[in-house]
Structures are given as C-alpha cells and as structure tokens.
Design goal:
Helix content: 25-40%
Structural class: alpha/beta
Radius of gyration: 22 Å
Number of helices: 16
Strand order of the largest sheet: 15-14-13-9-12-11-10-16
Amino acid sequence: MNDDARPAPEPQDMPPHSGAADEVNRQDPSRRSVLWTTAGVAGAGLGLGALGAGTASAAGARAPEAVTAAEAVAAAPPRQGRTMAGVPFERRSTVRVGIIGLGNRGDSMIDLFLALPGVQVKAVCDTVRDKAEKAAKKVTAAGQPAPAIYAKDEHDYENLCKRGDIDFVYVVTPWELHFPMAKTAMLNGKHVGVECPIAMRLEELWQLVDLSERTRRHCMQLENCCYGKNEMRVLRMAHAGLFGELQHGAGAYNHDLRELMFDPDYYEGPWRRLWHTRLRGDLYPNHGFGPVANYMDVNRGDRVVSISSVGTTPLGLAAYREEHMPPGDPSWKESYIGADRTISLVQTAKGRVIRLEHDVSSPHPYSRINSLGGTKGVFEDYPERIYLEPTNTNHQWDDFTKYADWDHWLWKEHANPPGGHGGMDYIMVFRLMQCMRLGLVPDFDVYDAAVWTAPVPLSHLSIKAKGAPLPIPDFTRGEWKKARSGMDSEKPAE
C-alpha cells in the first residue's frame, strides 16, 4: 500500500494516452502498444470497451476476436538488450538510496532503510515539502548527513534521479506515477524498486522490461508479502516436495478499505478511490499472486499463460458513500465501475491453476487466502492450517506450527523483525540491501514485476469480454524454461 499527496487524473472509464506513455508510443509504435488497460484492442480495430454493453450473446460473439487481438499483443517483440534473469547487482560497501513519495507508506519505510548498516538515505522527494522535511529529520536523527530535499514541483523527482550519488531509487507514490518514475530512474542509471502495482498498462510493463534489459538496471516490484513468514515457510516446503506435484494455488487482496478510501487525509487526492471509477478488474493482484507464483517457480521453470476474470456489480463504495458522506462531498460526483469482488483464474504452462481475488469495497475480514495444493496435500492461510499425507489421514486440518523447522533462514536470523506488516517489510528491505551490498542476484526481477502486475489490465479486459480467457505475455522471452534461483535462497557469507 502506498500514498502520496498528488491527486490522480480525473476519473474516466476510457482515458486517452497521455504523458510518458504517449512518448513511449511515439518512439516505439509496436503491436504491444495497442492493448491498454481500458482503451481495448484499438490497433486491431476492436474496442473491448464496447464489450461492456449490449447482450451477453453479442459480447460472447466478439470474445474470440478479442482473444485473437490480445494474442497478437501478447506475442513477445524482439529483445532490445540482454536478459536480466540471473544478473547480480554490483557489489558495494554502502547502498545509497533516494526515496520518492513520503506519505503513509514512504514515511514508515524510511525507518527500515535507516535501521540497516551499510545503507545511506541521500535524497528524499515529495510534492508536499513538509513531508520531505519530516523525512529528512529522520535521516539526521539516525546519525546520517542531511539528505537533499526535492519538493519544488511534480517533476522534481527527475532531479533526484539525476544525482550521481544514488544507487537505488525507491518509488512510493500513487499507482499512475510508478511507470514514469521507474523509467526515469533506469534512464539515469539507477536500480529501482517500486511499490505495487509497478504499472497500470500492458505496454508500460513491456517498456519496463525492455528498459531494464537495455540499461542493465534492475527494476523490481517490492512485494513485501513474498517475505511473509508463512509464505517463506510454505515456499521451502513446496520446493522440498512436501506437497507433491503442485496443482493449484490461490491468493487475494480482500481488505475492507472503504473507510480509508473516503478519508481525505489517508489517500490524498483521493487517488486510490478514483481508480474504482476507471477499471473494473483486479487493481491490486500482487500481494496474492507473488507468493503463489514463487511456490510454482513461475518464470523459473513454469510460466503463466492465460487469465480469465469475472466481477460482481459495483455496489460497495456507493453504498458506503450513501451512509457516511455528507451532501456536497466531492465523492458524490464519482461513478464507480470497479467490481466489488473480482475473481480470476490463471493457467500455467504446466497445467496448474491459480485463483486470484480482489475486494476492497465490501465488509470482509482481512485475507490474502494464500493457499497451495498438490498431490500430497494442501496449505491454507487465514487461519493457517495444513493437511499433508502420510502424516494426516483423518480428514482433519493439522497445526502449521509443527513445521517451524522449515522457516526460511531470513526468519530464523530475524525472529522478531521491526516494522509493519508482521515484520515482512523489514525482511524485504534487509534482503534487498544485502543483495546490493554483496553483489548478489536479486530474489525477483523485472519479469516477475511484469507478470505479477499483468492481471491489472488483463482482468479488466476479460471482465468486459464476459470472462473470456486472455493470454499473459511471456515477458522473459523464453527464459522461463531455465531453472534458476529465486526467493528460496541460501544464506550468503558476509
């Protein structure tokens, strides 16, 4: 989750190309640029936006055309550089960090960077100067030199990225800013880590892949849930074969955010709520998708090939507004189109199935589902429980704490980590900075970022096409067939 002071663009279901994406399209008018989150398959003469209206039979008749057009877009274009799969960082004694975005998420995460030896925060950036100055005071309070402050205007982040004394840029801003900021960081020779999701459009995902390969800079989705204690334990157990041949998994972001989305001081703008006026699909797949993809070695021996999505009617936000917002509140001008609950089925090349869910608009206890099943048993989270043969044969769930010996070395070394989200934020930052200091291959890369985010645009289009399965691009361009390391790492020698 992230936050920033800058408001999102005006809400609309089919926004035109603009800004950085326009520049990308002008420079590279390739087939992958025709499929956009909401504009449909315009390059193929078919607007998927039209599939949102009319009879179901008419939509069904057009769905095969949508799939054909999407397949053309999903086909991998020629590689412009060399693969970034398995490429290590440059070894360095100190990692110099620049942070863009100092709202709720950025303000809390800067504490974790400052808690680590061998890490210096050299520059901070936010459009609200008070937030940048507050962050700068944290840096000096930690005993580091005062960082440079960039708060002049909405483009001042570009000057931060141009600095010669920064190795890593951390982007913690509203979603629509993630792509241009990641792009700017890499073009200026910086590795970059971005909060979820890394971009909102398919062509932006392709551009980040291409740019990472051309600049030889890593571009990573900083998916903290991959570093959860349960997630890392299940990962090791899966790779050790305790679940047998993996068959299915599930992940979600089911989190009642209604109160926060209508709080003007939490999501300023209100940038997050306005995305529910633009897209119908899964706006935030990464927390659920990333861990399950890791269990199944997606991009490391298997790959996801298609997604089919359905969604409920959009009633939750309007109902909350009716009950809680006073007449004249700006939210009354908004029309919500985002499904209260989106359910997607993702198929892999090996025939496995991953179920994704997204629901932030209706009453529901927090759950990421986090389930994995194979030929020898199954794990389900929220609450955590497990059933594995031959240990379990009585059709009763077993106690997951019995498997604590399978904890990842990161959790054995940091049993009580500081920071939010149960310590996973700290584990993520510690491991990333460790990889940069020691010159190791990162646990995940730009290909993982693109795959974990692809459901954002594709689920929207699939819902408009009445659940038609749409292809997920092979962002690795065939590298997925090669087994390689990922999250299930060995403890390195310092």
